[in-house]
Structure formats: C-alpha cells, structure tokens
Amino acid sequence: MSAELKQSGDKPNLPPDTKMIEVFIMGKRYKVPATLTIQKAIEWAGFQFLRGCGCRGGICGACPTIYRTKDDYKLKIGLACQTVVEDGMYLVQLPFVPAQKSEYHIEDERPTIAAIEKHYPETFRCVQCNTCTKACPMDIEVMQYIAEIIKGDYKKAAELSSSCIMCGMCAARCPAELQQFNVAMFVRRMYGRHVLPKAEHLQKRVKEINENKYIPFLDELGEISHDELVERYKSREWQPEPYEDPNWQPKETKYL
Ligand code: SF4
Ligand code: SF4
Ligand code: FES
Fold first, then answer.
1. What is the CATH number of the domain that holds 156?
2. Structural domain tally of the chain?
3. Domain end marker among 64, 93, 122
4. Are 191 and 161 spatial neighbours (Cβ–Cβ below 8 Å)?
5. Which residues constitute the domain of residue 210?
6. Of 121, 124, 239, 252, which has the maximum CB count within 10 A?
C-alpha cells in the first residue's frame, strides 16, 4: 500500500445521507463512509494498493487485516475485501506472512509421517491452543487439520484444509511457529498425487492437448475479427440451470 494521496478510480458514489465514521489506518485518523469494506475505506482515505489486494472477492488471500474495535481488547483478523469498517476501528494491512516453502518433488514424496518430519518438522510442536482456528478468516478448523496431519490421516487433513486461501494468518498467530498453510498444501499435493485415483477425463484431455488437438481452434480464434469474437462469446451455449444433468453436452461437440 503506498501513501500517495491519489484518488482511486474505485471511489464509490455514495448517497448524501451516508454516515461517516472514524477509523485509524496505521495509527492515523480518517473519516470514511460506514458502508465500505476495509479495502474500500483505505482507498477512500487516499491510499492506493500496490500489494495486499488481488481478487477483491475473498478468494486470493492477499488482503489480511489486523484490527481492534472500540471497547474490545481482542486483536481481530479479517479479509480487507470482506470486512466492513466499524467506528473506532484501528487497523493495519499485513502484506505478507513470511513462511519458507520446503523444496520437494512430489513424485519422490510419499504421504507418510516421515515426509512431514523431513519437510515441516515444526508441525509436531503444535500445543493445541486453537489460536490458528480463531485467526482463520475462512473458518477452517486449522488446529484440527494439523492434528490429522500429526496422526497421519491425510485424507481428513486435505478435506479440512481444502478452502485455505493461503492468507497466512494462522501462521502469524501460532505460538509454536508452524506454517500451517504450507504443510497443508504439501499434504494435499501428496494426497492428490499418490492416493486419489487418477481422473480419467483429465488424462484424456491432457493427451489431447499434447497431441495439439486444440491448436487449429486457437488459430481460428486468432484470425477472426474482434466483433465476431464478441458475437461468438455472447452467443455461446450455456448449460441449462440448475446443472443437474451430468450427461449434458453442448450441441457443438467438436471443441470437447
Ligand atoms: S496456533 Fe499453532 S500451536 Fe496453536 S493449535 Fe494452531 S498450530 Fe497448534
Ligand atoms: S488456514 Fe491459515 S492460511 Fe489458510 S485461510 Fe485459514 S488462516 Fe489463512
Ligand atoms: S483481495 Fe483477494 S481475498 Fe481480499
């Protein structure tokens, strides 16, 4: 985030009766509209995001914010793009949580406790305080997936951690200094590579790609005019909602 006082193009048009509240961004007081998310309030205050902002939709994990609210001693955590400002909020953006990724070739690894000990040995230092779970903006049972990893239940750990957006807030708050999100990613990769059966349709598609099946279609798209491209996009066939028929196929099947 830079402190350039440049108005963002994202500044919303607010109704005249919008309530203004006071927030403190990196210790400095600002008046911002009460309806904004933290991300938009920071932009309203004149800051411009260079880092710490990605999807703006709660998916990329780039925007963790630490804040305190009036009359509450607790340090709170939220995603700036999803959390609405409150009067008297003190906040700061965390651009990144330092965590070293272990280097490995997934083909050479096996889903065993020995692999966790080798690459993320600090995992076994967990003291089960549950701080990570309370810190997680995605409401993931972080302590539980770490417990499953320690027990060796990688299926359960992969399932429990599958919505992780890699924001790193669990690691930032962990008193035992674990890198929960990196060890969970390692486990999901091992589980996907060595335990789950291979998806036949995926193998078929990879084979077709390697055989250049789609090159002529891509070349064709590169040659048509912009207007035709727009027209094709607009008139593309949609699967009818509610997407219940697993055997549905579009009328034109040559691209499948
Ligand atoms: S915060 Fe760290 S020590 Fe506490 S439960 Fe989570 S992983 Fe374990
Ligand atoms: S598990 Fe950790 S890194 Fe993943 S979303 Fe939750 S707090 Fe963020
Ligand atoms: S900007 Fe991607 S989660 Fe907030």
1. 1.10.1060.10
2. 3
3. 93
4. no
5. 200-234
6. 124
State which ligand 2 atom lies nearest to the alpha carbon of 136. Answer: 7
In the reported structure, the alpha carbon of residue 145 is separated from the centroid of ligand 2 by a whole-number distance in angstroms of 11
Tens digits of per-residue pLDDT, 36-67?
999 999 999 999 999 899 999 999 999 999 99
Model-wide pTM > 0.85: no
Closest ligand 1 atom to Cα of 180? 7
Find the 223 Cα to ligand 1 centroid distance in Å. Answer: 55
Q: Name 68's Cβ contacts closer than 8 Å, sequence gap at least 6.
A: 74, 75, 76, 89, 90, 91
The average pLDDT across 61-84 equals 95
pLDDT tens readout for residues 133-169: 999 999 999 999 999 999 999 999 999 999 999 999 9
The reply to whether 182 and 133 lie within a common domain is yes
Q: Is the pLDDT of residue 12 over 90?
A: no
Question: How many Å lie between the centroid of ligand 1 and the Cα of residue 22?
Answer: 34
Q: Is the CB of 135 inside a 6 Å radius of any atom of ligand 1? A: no
Structural domain contains residue 246: no
Whichever domain contains 36, its CATH number is 3.10.20.740
